[in-house]
Amino acid sequence: FACDDIIFAEYDENETMLIYKELVKASDNSTIQVIMIDKSVGTNNVREIFNLLGCESEKFSDDYFVINVPGEINYSLVKAKLSAVKSDNIIDFAESCLSEKHRIQVSMAQQ
Known about the structure:
The protein is α+β, with helices and mostly antiparallel strands. It contains three helices and six strands.
């Protein structure tokens, strides 16, 4: 799921935790997972590249962070920068939760 998605979960007495049931409302936000390939480049330096594009991120370790791409940001510009940094062998990334709005932007940019 992405930031601001609304989900429904129920508490399961047997599992003693909340269990996901359904996505109630998807936001237009997307979540991108990033791993650092080139350890000599600071993670925070790469995060700042995307912060300047309007995308906040959360660092989980020196080698891994997650970017939130808000719905109002044109994802094709973010993806172009992700691809450029990847081609420089600095990062690799996964589009773990790409909103429909951002999917359309990417497909239109490829035409």
